[in-house]
DNA sequence: CTTTTATAAAATGTATACATTTTTATATGT
DNA sequence: ACATATAAAAATGTATACATTTTATAAAAG
C-alpha cells in the first residue's frame, strides 16, 4: 500500500489531532521513507481536503469546521439526486440487487470499524451512481464523500444515526424498483440533508 | 512564478495537444528544472483535471470530452445559483459596484487574450460569491470554473458568445440591485446552462 | 522590561544519483 | 512469418545531498 493510502487511513482514524502541524521529516521518519514520497502524498491529501496548506509553514490537520460540513452536505444534496436521476434509466434489477447486498452487509457488521462502514456506504452509493456513465460528476461526488468521511469518523464515536440511515437506504431501493424515480431522488436528498444536519449538530455539541 | 503556474498556463493556452503523453524528464528539460518540482506540479494538475493519470505510463493531456463539459456545467448550474443565494444578503452596493467595474473592463478589452477574459470572468463571479463566506462551497465552484477554462480556451478560437454572456451578466447585477434575488439566481442558472450548451455544441461541430 | 536586530537552527525546495519498474527492441524457436 | 522469450532502454519511484527560505533564539539597544 502506498504512503498516500497509509497516511489517509491514519488521518481518517483520527490518529493526528486536528490543528496539529505535520513536518515532512517527521512523517518521513514515522513511516520509514524519505521526504520525496511524503511530499507527493501531502500534496494529494491537501488537494483532497485531508490537510490544509498552512502556507509555507508546512501542512496542518484541519480543525473540525461545522461550516465546512454544511457546505459539503449542501453540495451533496444538490448533486447526488441529480446523479441518481441520470443513473435511474440504467439501473437494472441485477444492479439493485447488488446494492441491496451491500446494505445487508452493513446490517450484519454492526460493530464494524468506522472506516469499513464508510467504505460500504460509499460502495452503496457508487453502485447506484456509476451506471449513469457520468465520470466527471461521479468523481466530484466521490470527492465530496471522502471529505465528509473525515467528520463521519469523528462522529461515529459519539453519535449513532446508522439505524435511520439504513432504513432510508432501503426506502430508496424500494422506490427505484417501482420506477418511482422522482420519489427516490427526493428521499435521497432528504437523506443527505438529514445526515448533514445531524453531523453539524453533533459538532456544535461535542 | 512557480512551475505549477507556468505549466497550467501553457495547458490553458493549448500548447500541448490533447492526447499527448508528457514525460517528466521532457518537461524538466523544457522548463529548466529537475524532475522533483515537475512531479509536484504534475500531481496537482492531475487532481485538478488538467492532466489525466495515464496509469504508470506517466500523464496525458486529456482529450476534449463533451460529456465532461456537460457534467461540469450541470454541476455549476446546481451550485452557483445556490452560492449566489447565500451571498445575496451580504452584497452591498459597493461590492456590486466593483463587480460592474470588472464587467466594464471586459467590455473594453474586446481583443483580450482568452486567458485574460477567463480570469476577469472568474473574478466577476468570485466578487459576487465570496461575500457568502462559504469557503468550501466557494472552493469547489472555483475548481469547476478552472476545469471549464481548459475548454473555453479552445472555444474562444471558433466561437463568440461573449456578447450574450455580457448582457446576461449585467442582467444579474441589475436584479441583485433591485433585491430580486430569486430572479438573479434564475438568470444565473440559465446563463451557465446556456454557456454549457453552446460549448458542447461547438465541441461536437469542430 | 520591551523591542529590535543578528545569528543559529530547522524546515522546505531543488538537484543529483541510484533503484525499480515498465516499455521497447531484438533474438530465438517453432 | 509469427509468437514468445529475453535483454537493453527508458521512464518512474526513491534516497541522499545541497540550497534557500523561514522560524526560533539570543544578544544588544532603547
From TrEMBL, chains A, B:
Q: Which domain of life is it from?
A: Bacteria
Q: Which Gene3D superfamilies match?
A: GntR ligand-binding domain-like, Winged helix-like DNA-binding domain superfamily/Winged helix DNA-binding domain
Q: Which CDD domains does the UniProt record give?
A: WHTH_GntR
What molecular function does GO assign, one term? DNA-binding transcription factor activity
What Pfam families does the database record attribute to this sequence?
FCD (PF07729), GntR (PF00392)
Instruction: Tell me which UniProt keywords the record has, alphabetically.
Output: DNA-binding, Transcription, Transcription regulation
Residues of the HTH gntR-type domain: 1-64
What is the official name of this protein in its record? GntR family transcriptional regulator
Lineage, uppermost ranks:
Bacteria, Pseudomonadati, Pseudomonadota, Gammaproteobacteria, Cellvibrionales
